[in-house]
Amino acid sequence: MRKFINLSKYRQKELNSNFPELFKIYGAEDSSHYNRIAVSVFDHWLTREEFQNDYPSREEHLQRNEALYSFAKVMAANTEVLNFKFKGKWDKCYPCFRKFGSQEAMLDYLQPAGDNDSSDKFCKLVLPEFKAVYFESWDYTNVYYIQNDSVISEIKKWASEAGVYCLEY
Question: Pseudo-torsion of CA 165, 137, 84, 29, nearest 10°?
């Protein structure tokens, strides 16, 4: 069975209109359509000194990744999550939304990319019900781009269940 299955053309158009400027926020640019919040294993934004002195042991690294994986599983259990990739190039780039081929494929995809030296393998999802975009990121902190602040309370609830923290920008 395939890991991802492309959605119908109708659903692609619907999601494309519901998630404007997706390529822009994927490039970490600001957008007037979205506000950002983060989910992190840390209970505060790290100072430069804290960041520079953070060399977790292998065990601590695995615990942090497990906490973020637990969060991703709670999120996926509570709402529809869809993967996307980009097709085309630069100004002609557009998203292609895909559902998961199986529960196992989804759980495998939600695993933190960990020690990669590239963000290419990072998880990127849309949550249609919440009109939110979720990106795995560096330093045990993942980012949500949300269109409606009313979903923050639900995200905070999931974070609490998983033992991670929701940080506002």
Answer: 100
